[in-house]
Specification:
Four copies of one chain form a homotetramer. The first copy, chain A, has 341 residues and is α/β, with parallel strands linked by helices. At the B-C interface, helix 1, helix 3 and helix 10 of B face helix 1, helix 3 and helix 10 of C. Chains A, B, C, D: Belongs to the threonine aldolase family. Chains A, B, C, D: Keywords: Lyase, Pyridoxal phosphate. Chains A, B, C, D: One of its GO terms (molecular function) is lyase activity.
Chain lengths: 341, 341, 341, 341
């Protein structure tokens, strides 16, 4: 049986486990005040070309989104997001539970564009009743998106410009950031993201770590009080060094990008095979997520030998499914899957 | 200068002011525990044909919506509402501030239909990831809607049926309820509403009172703890008798419906005149709100002699405006407005 | 039967009702944008000697406390208050419902002192773990307190100094402010309060109005976004002029202080009679609230002819009860009560 | 340099790391739906003698407390806790951020007793204004407490009885549960806790795991919707098996109790040596936390060779410090510390 359901099915990159073994008996102070975290922060600042950045380590994506958004918004402000954005759909109301509205914008394959943000904000402030409404307070984008699409440098630049025009912090959810940076045709580097966003995070859970997300505030003043807010959100790990060790390992010897590149290579090999075999792609994704249209009979058949993600019913007879590769995907497993197609 | 901006521009029905004068020096206990509130509750229960109903008096619409929704929902549940619903648009995030998501459904002239609710709930529970999402927790409708449209008895019956199918309390925002009950062609009576909804409120602010909304829980068990929740939401008036006196007065001698009928009569007279004068109606409303398309030049001209509500720009040259009548609108003012058209 | 239960048993000062009658048919825009509110704001700014103040009108005390505190605090900050403070005890968790902790300080007859605040803050920042704790974010005091005591000018000055030392806004709950200003021996004037506090409110509900609290931000920058926050808290009255009319009336011809002085005169007459008759005062209050120790048998007897507030059981045989006078208390009723003693 | 600062300074028990290594390349579904979690749940149910229990795995203590309390309380209810309870002091307002008040009870060495709970509840419901106040909604205790003290079986029985009398769920914070079960003189077993509490958690972070807390609802109906609430609170780990593997390992071959016992043995050895050396104990603790009074000069001296926790200044010359042992403490390190005393 092959498994291509998601990119968080395995444990961690072996170098991480080795380091955890090696350091297991060391005694360190808690809550991210240890030397591993300090080194991981330094490596991330360097990789981002942003020496003034404030870096924090959290455990998972939903808690990271909720904590960052709570830090940036006043009570009457909302987060602008694609209507398909993770915070708008699959976080069980974590943003609203902190008292904030998600103001949705129609998506195009998971992405929003600068023009739509500009138009929404312009219309908002032109409304005579705008003081009775939730004010746009930040822009949230995910990169890659939930649809496996990516922003180009020029697209991100445009979004950043409009966000700054309306004084809205720009926040990028990078739960799968490595797969965006390494995506086929990507022209957006970590330093660009650091320059254009006010805060973003570098996903570890789906890219080589057991768990962990590294939050980068490129404007340090936005991070004021963030440590205590992490504590309040239950997002402060007692044994913080576990996060420091993981990110230090991922940001040593270019490992984060290398393993991300591997996932993309595997996905592109699979994608080519799917096209060759005559399958229709639902979305032309350059990332580790591939969305394929299957006849239902074929899907049932295939599901006996490989597990994959159900995406949506296309019509009565056909279904869109998702195959996800990851840093851990073995080429032999991709080959085995291709055999089955 | 004539004023048709909204239905909350004047004070209160004279009978209410007289009663306030007359009782001003009386000493009563606070927080709705007085005899006026008791009588008003009895009159409302009777008017609703629902002797077991629990009735509470609050001050304004937004606080009433937020308090009721907070009472009915668990933390991970949301309120289904039209995307044009007041709670989704013009309450400054009051629902989210209590921790709840508004789950929007596309509207048809401000209304949602049973089928859309059924489809949304069916799809929700069919989703493999539904436990990662905000669960539908109640159905919110406004009657009349923000677009001046009304639900028919059969429409409300269908919505009530689907709500019960999914065990969702049905909550009707009746900020303008009188104008819905008295609307041209309305076939929905107060007793129908009480039978089909689990909770609703009878708007006073826009229908004859200085302020005040009477909340009717037709299922008393849903009202458990509501008094304390009102206090927590800042919705418990110290001198509660002011609300009791107002609703007692409105529900004496059929006053609530009579004054609502007057507003409708005035609106229908205006509507007929608008049609006669060749204006295009944007929405064919049977209620006290009339939405008319005006050329911008005409609008500017008219606005020198009458004030009205700006609704939306239709295109570069034309605007939709709203004329609202109320219980207090004088026929001579409607005639004066018609003269100007 | 006489009633001395509380100071919110009657309606409003006759001049207010007359004005409401007189203006009833006027049409004004909503939400506090009318001319009555504008004039009331100007009168209040003048009475406070604070021309730059931002003034808002809300309906009741709990909603006012919750909205102001929500406006001033970040998510991880709390409100310092006496453990007997209204926000700590009798608001059904309204502060916590907005996500904020009330950090309590032991009281002395309802008051807190500068030294206790200084000590708490000094200890807090000296704690190695303070970043794991709720940070002091503002100081809340009530004047008069829930125990009918008042702050002197020097006490308030000291509290203001320590609040500024720790950069904590000082917020005074003035639900009974008139009775504090007019209290026997009071040396604290409105202009002092405006100078020493960052925000406070002038209670109307208990001092001559049907309802209403006038919030004064003496530092306008603290009021940023307050209008929308009022809307979110359900604290924005649609027919805002009702509040404007009431406060305009109260701040015309020194009415607010005059009627407060009357309540104090009545309370002092009662207090003298109580002492003469040999009753023990539980608290030596210079305000409209008088706390008296009664033998239980005497209390039961008295309660057949006069209603009063139950305060607390002193021991098995004696109870503390509260007699409250108000702007509306008639001298003949005080005389009748004295007769009964 | 020796380190006795806290019980979360090392990584995990070697058996856990081995198992993580061994299973690293396995592919499992996420969010706790894997076979490791299933087995860990079964082992915990068995250890608790509670086959019907619902078991969930979360990452850290603060998020666990906040999620459980949010699950159990209605909006107007609060959590009764010792004023020294972790939720009342060191969780940065996590409970209030979910909208709930912590209602504090004075502690005795970190503990509360049944009588105090009974008295508080009785007084509460006897208060004429109780509907204006936050209602007691659950009882929170920590075992061992923050002061290193433990409840006896009869004490817990009494608390459980009074909680049931007032229909309050009893929730035990077991962040250090192992050290309570294994404490010197403890007569409270896991099965007793399961029988007497409605929900509790078995701490992993401080007792052998890298991280993780196992929540046990002994009344399954209280767990309704808990999975989604975990997601909302950011407390649902994507790679849930990491928690399953850890708790399966800890609950195999009696490991959880055995390693806890080791920590206690080390603490008792240290305690005896402290007494022998003439030090004064601040608290007579039977657990892994020992609180000792040191002259400040001695403390400064000692701190050059050993790190420990600062607890509180006793007076100008003396300080209370905490030495904590853990499952990982080596006897040779305790001996080395004893040498230094």
């Amino acid at each position: 049986m092959q498994h291509f359901d998601s990119d968080y099915m395995e444990g961690a990159h072996p170098a991480i486990l080795e380091k955890l073994m090696e350091t297991n008996e060391e005694k360190t102070p808690g809550y991210g005040t240890d030397a591993y975290c300090a080194r991981a922060r330094a490596l991330i600042r360097e990789a981002c070309g942003c020496p003034e950045a404030e870096v924090f380590f959290l455990v998972g994506g939903t808690q990271t989104n909720a904590t960052i958004i709570d830090a940036l918004l006043r009570s009457t402000q909302g987060a602008l997001a694609a209507d398909t954005g993770h915070i708008a759909t699959h976080e069980a109301g974590a943003i609203e539970a902190s008292g904030h509205k998600v103001i949705t914008i129609p998506h195009t394959l998971g992405k929003i564009d600068a023009e739509a943000i500009d138009s929404l904000c312009t219309t908002f402030y032109a409304d005579a009743n705008y003081e009775h409404m939730v004010e746009p307070g930040l822009v949230y984008i995910s990169h890659p998106t939930e649809y496996g699409t990516i922003y180009s440098l020029s697209e991100l630049k445009a979004i950043s410009d409009v966000a700054r025009k309306f004084k809205l912090p720009l926040f990028m959810d990078g739960a799968r950031l490595g797969y965006g940076l390494a995506a086929e045709g990507a022209d957006l580097a970590l330093a660009d993201i650091a320059r254009l966003c006010d805060v973003f995070y570098i996903g570890g859970t789906k890219v080589g770590a057991l768990f962990g997300e590294a939050v980068v505030f490129t404007k340090p003043e936005l991070a004021k009080g963030f440590f205590t807010l992490m504590k309040q959100h239950g997002a402060l790990l007692a044994k913080g060094r576990l996060l420091g060790i993981q990110f230090e390992t991922l940001f040593t010897e270019n490992r984060y990008l290398d393993i991300s590149r591997h996932a993309i290579d595997m996905a592109m090999k699979l994608k080519a095979a799917l096209i060759d075999a005559g399958y229709a792609l639902h979305i032309d994704s350059p990332t580790n997520q591939q969305f394929v249209v299957l006849d239902n009979a074929r899907m049932d058949d295939l599901s006996k030998q490989v597990s994959f993600g159900f995406w949506e019913a296309l019509d009565a007879d056909r279904t869109v499914v998702r195959f996800a590769t990851s840093w851990a995907t073995r080429e032999e497993d991709v080959d085995a899957l291709i055999e089955l197609l």
